[in-house]
Specification:
about 35% helix; 11 helices; six-stranded mixed sheet; globular
């Protein structure tokens, strides 16, 4: 990554997090304004780790702190209220609601704040939608457009926009550019860098090695549910990530 990272206390700290059978005693830190990449092969436990931090699955052991405060998120709703948002890998299954229009999809994460006397404040919803469309450059004719008419890249921006509306301090991105074209990928990368420059702590899970190397300030490599290596600037190469992710380096040093 090419943006300057402010020094200081980590914003998100994970200590000895364990999810039975898939994540074994993982510890990591993400600072304000930092993009920490999570590398590893399929089945390495990266997504389960993210979901445990976010409260989507239960962890048996370990601690999560946010800005020094202990956090025990028993559900994604609690995580969002605390300031942690998770953008899932599968847009079609877990994210986009194809029966709703662009505006409704953008406001889904903040419906509670947009209600007034239990009724949705349509004017506030529209204003929010217009702001997000401008801010993250979503290409759509109107907020009432059907989401399925949009490109994959714009659908992914809508998912990002939905969680940015919640004004998180930590953003967990799971395969944010999977299945989108090169131009849209470059735009998502620019947006991620802008968000980090604005002070967000970003945990980036990606199987795209070029993306991992280009975007990350540090890379934490997982293998079979454990952290096997942390790579810092200057050490982050595709070859290093592959070697550690495959367990080759771990085997070589007898770990």
């Amino acid at each position: 990554a090419e943006h300057p990272v402010p020094a200081g206390e980590p914003l998100l700290s994970v200590r000895e997090l364990t999810v039975e059978g898939v994540v074994h005693g993982v510890s990591l830190d993400v600072g304000r304004g930092e993009i920490v990449g999570l590398g590893g092969l399929l089945g390495s436990g990266r997504t389960e780790l993210a979901q445990a931090i976010y409260g989507a699955i239960r962890h048996q052991r370990g601690a999560v702190t946010l800005a020094g405060q202990p956090l025990s998120c028993r559900s994604p709703n609690e995580a969002v209220r605390a300031g942690i948002c998770y953008v899932p890998a599968n847009r079609q299954q877990d994210g986009i609601v194809f029966t709703l229009d662009v505006g409704a999809n953008l406001s889904l994460g903040v419906l509670r704040q947009l209600r007034s006397n239990r009724l949705l404040d349509k004017r506030r919803e529209r204003r929010l939608g217009e702001e997000l469309i401008t801010r993250i450059r979503i290409v759509t004719r109107s907020l009432r457009d059907e989401v399925e008419t949009l490109s994959g890249g714009n659908q992914q921006k809508i998912l990002l926009g939905r969680w940015l509306a919640a004004e998180p301090s930590v953003l967990i991105l799971d395969e944010p550019t999977q299945g989108i074209d090169v131009g849209a990928k470059a735009e998502i990368h620019r947006l991620i860098a802008e968000l980090a420059a604005g002070g967000l702590a970003i945990l980036l899970i990606t199987s795209d090695l070029q993306e991992l190397v280009k975007m990350s300030d540090r890379v934490i490599v997982m293998h079979r549910g454990r952290v096997v290596r942390e790579l810092i600037r200057g050490e982050i190469t595709e070859e290093a990530v592959i070697a550690h992710a495959a367990g080759v380096m771990a085997a070589a040093v007898g770990a």
